[in-house]
Every structure is written in C-alpha cells, then in structure tokens.
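Protocol step 4 of 6: structure prediction from sequence.
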Amino acid sequence: MIELKSVAEIGKIARASRIVAQLLQELKGRLKAGVTTKELDLYVAKRIAKEGGKPAFLGYRGFPATLCVSVNDEVVHGIPSNRVICDGDIVGLDLGVIVDGFYGDAALTVPIGKVSKEALRLIRVTEASLYAGIKQARVGGRLTNISHAIQSCAEADGFSVVTEFVGHGIGRALHEDPQVPNFGPPGQGVRLRAGMVLAIEPMVNVGKSDVRILEDKWTAVTVDGELSAHFEHTVVITEDGPKILSKI
C-alpha cells in the first residue's frame, strides 16, 4: 500500500535527506587516489552519529557497512574494504540515514583523477536520466512516466539501464511501495499523488544491462565487465511539481 506523507512527515524525511546530501558532498571531497573504501565508511559513520542520525544500511538484511561504495564495473551494494581507490576509477557512493524514525536516501558517482571520456559521458548521462525521471514525478501522471523518461535518456546515448534493481517509496521504512522501475513504457502503473515520496535511482551501464552478484552476496557487477554509474535522489511529489529533498 502506498502511504501519502503528511507535511510533518515530509519535514522529517527532508531532514534525513539533507544530512545524506551533506555527507555525500563531504565524501566526494575526500575521494581521491590512495583512499580506501573502508576509510570512507568509517568517516561517514562518525558523521552520521554527530548529526544525530542512524545509518540506514548497516545491518539492513545483513549488510555489513554504513556506506555502499561501488567502483568501476560494480553497479551497486559494494561493501567497503581495504580496496584502494585509483586514478581513473569511477566510484558510486550510496548512503541512507534515519532521523526521528524517517529515512533519507541518495547516491552519486564520482570520477577520480583522469578518467576516460566514455566514463565521463556515462556519469553525465546517468545523472541526466535521473533528472529526466524526476521531471515526470508530477501529480496526475503515471508511475512509469518516470521509468520511461529514465530509460529514454540513457538509451539515447547508447547506454543500457539496469533492470534488476529499481527505485522505491521511502519514509518510515527504507523500501516502501511503490517500486519505481528505471525502464518500461509510459502511461502505466499507479497515478501519482501529492504526498508520495520516492527514491528515484537509475543505474546505467556502458555495455549490456545484465548484472551478477559476487560471492559476498551483496556486490552487483556488470556481467560484461563494463563500467556502471548510479545516481539517486529522494523526491516528494507536490501540487507544484517534484521537490528534491536530498539536496543542500
């Protein structure tokens, strides 16, 4: 069942989401060649506590870290470790925070040093596909208008959209109804209403859309070894259009 959020509830989601946005920008500033993914995780865990929040991912279905760090061909759910970030990598950061019982969730992908033109184009197009989807999050529209806009934007540049993972509603739980696919024809699914809060999150691959899960049972990688990028925002649908909550 899709739960419409009250003004007070949206305020709490917004607070959690702003913390996520702030910490992602701090992490982006710390990302450089020579840093380990575990260092990033330890840093953000301390910062969440300082902000009075709780990590949304740690322990969720057994996930062992606060931050998801996915490098190069890793699509999503990368587990922080002693892996060292290298010049030329692209790094996906996915973070969730709980404040006063409500969740915020966002993600971005960052180029490290000198990366390929293809990698930069992938990052640019993936972020553009997110905003294309957000633009369709309007009262009276259908859910898959978001999905179709994301897919159309990504595929127009020759990339493929991951179909195994989707966006989701968010609020008192990290994952709520409805699921928000990043693919599909427009004009289908539930009609969008004011008060719906969605985590919209395209994952886009240079090569094929197929992914596989590593032996750690979490990290998803592209089957063909090609690069992948991930962007996400928590968005509330209002009578005046979509409002991004995970921005500073």
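Step 5 (inspection) to follow. The chain has a mean pLDDT of 98.
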